């Protein structure tokens, strides 16, 4: 009976020690969240560590995450961080049961990792960003030391000596402070929950000014409005993508774990660098008071695989970027300008590199302030984002922009270029079948095959469909909005029973035929023909 009692007691203490580790980890996160409210939300450990993990993840792994998790990739990363932290906390709790001081000190590893991640982020404001993780880990270490003390008793704290079981003292093993542990653990859990809730509330309150500033915005009428969308641009085919993508359905691919919420009243944009005769600085109101242009532009992410969803179309309104550069005295390289690259910096530290020549060649590159008739949504870059028709987003579509520096490709590599993506990335001619869906089961007879094709800043001239290994047949094209928009197409297919493969390809207005060669998204975008397999009943 004594042996059984000792075994059960040891199991109970081990379980409670593991629980103590979890409580210490929870307290660390809660206190860090509270402290981050006094520093800045981006300094909280989960956000900082997640951002650092994204920065250090190879391009191929990032591409895999986007392909498999889509826009939930950041949620998966955050959950992964929390699970890892929980496992670490469990292990530390068990370690502390045998080595109380060493185990408690191990909680400080949490602080070291979080602090290192926070101060190394591109948008770091300095060592102060490490305070949330550091203070949180100290509180966690003290809490674990106290809780383990309730399980072992102060006389069992031997520093480096193991705090192992003593079979010759069963009455001692049964005498650890159960009541004290329950009281301490309950108080710690309650205090941590309160600290975390207060921290979240304060961080949320810090974004209320940004929300209020957006709600107060009325985007002025453009001096140069967009041409009306042709009536025939939207085909009446069930299952095809809408010509204009609603704001809440527009794709999102970026590295921000927490969407920046920037107060438009305090936002500033600086223009400086090589070839700039005088530095310029603009407020949000400065931009709204300038002549605005409104344009229909389709954006596409370089992570979009053949047939993928990371493309969308919107009506954008903003300031022509070339005009701002000219005011600063910038000339394109073709006219003797010193700089051939624009480095756009976001408030979260992201850098994007754009060819100066492309921005100043007459296309409608802009600093956008509006999207589909309303101020930019936060997730799409409020208060201001950059976009350049014809270029993939990673070299042109800087969201939450706050700085434009003129430089050269030889002098500076932007964020994605450092991660082996191409420096220049014109959008490739591509097409996609929207309907029927892969592995669909349409009925025999006339089946409308339809989808979209795009070659921004070149336009789509022709789309062709092939059934199995048959000849290529021309699809019917919807009206082309502009050369900067995607184009819908359809093909009435006389479907016969059995399995079939449908393949699409497009030709742009320069005469370039979409290549059949399959490539991955890295380094400059995927290529290849999109196919779907269906079974006709």
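Q: What amino acid sequence fits the structure above?
A:
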């Amino acid at each position: 009976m004594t042996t059984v009692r000792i075994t059960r007691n040891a199991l109970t203490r081990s379980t409670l020690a593991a629980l103590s580790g979890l409580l210490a980890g929870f307290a660390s996160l809660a206190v860090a969240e509270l402290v981050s409210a006094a520093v800045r939300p981006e300094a909280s450990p989960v956000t900082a560590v997640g951002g650092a993990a994204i920065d250090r993840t190879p391009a191929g792994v990032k591409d895999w995450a986007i392909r498999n998790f889509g826009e939930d990739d950041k949620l998966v990363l955050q959950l992964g961080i929390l699970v890892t932290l929980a496992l670490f906390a469990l292990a530390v709790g068990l370690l502390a049961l045998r080595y109380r001081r060493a185990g408690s000190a191990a909680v400080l590893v949490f602080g070291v990792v979080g602090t290192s991640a926070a101060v190394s982020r591109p948008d770091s404001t300095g060592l102060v960003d490490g305070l949330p993780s550091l203070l949180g880990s100290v509180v966690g270490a003290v809490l674990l030391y106290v809780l383990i003390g309730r399980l072992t008793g102060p006389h069992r704290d031997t520093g480096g000596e193991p705090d192992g079981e003593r079979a010759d003292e069963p009455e001692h093993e049964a005498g650890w402070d159960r009541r004290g542990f329950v009281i301490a653990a309950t108080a710690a859990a309650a205090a941590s929950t309160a600290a975390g809730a207060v921290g979240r509330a304060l961080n949320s309150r810090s974004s209320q000014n940004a929300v209020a500033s957006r709600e107060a915005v009325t985007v002025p009428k453009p001096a140069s409005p967009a041409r009306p969308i042709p009536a025939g641009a939207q085909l009446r085919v069930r299952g095809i993508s809408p010509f204009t993508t609603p704001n809440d359905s527009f794709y999102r691919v970026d590295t921000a774990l927490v969407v920046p919420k920037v107060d438009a009243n305090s936002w500033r944009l600086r223009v400086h660098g090589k070839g700039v005769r005088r530095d310029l600085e603009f407020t949000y109101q400065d931009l709204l008071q300038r002549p605005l242009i409104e344009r229909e532009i389709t954006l596409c992410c370089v992570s979009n695989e053949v047939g993928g969803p990371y493309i969308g179309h919107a009506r954008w309104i903003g300031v022509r970027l070339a005009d701002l550069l000219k005011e600063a005295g910038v000339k394109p390289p073709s006219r003797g300008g010193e700089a051939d690259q624009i480095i756009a910096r976001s408030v979260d530290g992201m850098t994007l590199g754009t060819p100066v020549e492309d921005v100043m060649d007459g296309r409608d590159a802009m600093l956008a302030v509006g999207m589909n008739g309303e101020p930019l949504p936060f997730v799409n870059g409020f208060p201001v984002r950059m976009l350049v028709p014809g270029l993939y987003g990673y070299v042109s579509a800087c969201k939450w922009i706050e700085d434009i520096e003129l430089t050269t490709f030889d002098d500076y590599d932007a964020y994605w270029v450092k991660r082996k993506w191409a420096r220049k990335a014109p959008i490739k001619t591509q097409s996609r079948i929207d309907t029927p869906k892969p592995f669909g089961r349409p009925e025999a007879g006339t089946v409308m095959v339809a989808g979209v094709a795009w070659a921004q800043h070149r336009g789509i001239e022709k789309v062709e469909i092939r059934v199995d290994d048959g000849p290529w047949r021309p699809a019917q094209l919807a009206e082309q909005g502009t050369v900067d928009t995607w184009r819908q197409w359809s093909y009435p297919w006389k479907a016969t029973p059995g399995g079939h493969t449908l393949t699409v390809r497009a030709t742009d207005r320069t005469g370039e035929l979409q290549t059949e060669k399959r490539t991955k998204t890295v380094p400059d975008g995927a290529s290849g023909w999109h196919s779907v397999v269906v079974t006709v009943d």
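Q: And what stands out in the fold?
A: The CA atoms of residues 52 and 120 lie 8 Å apart.
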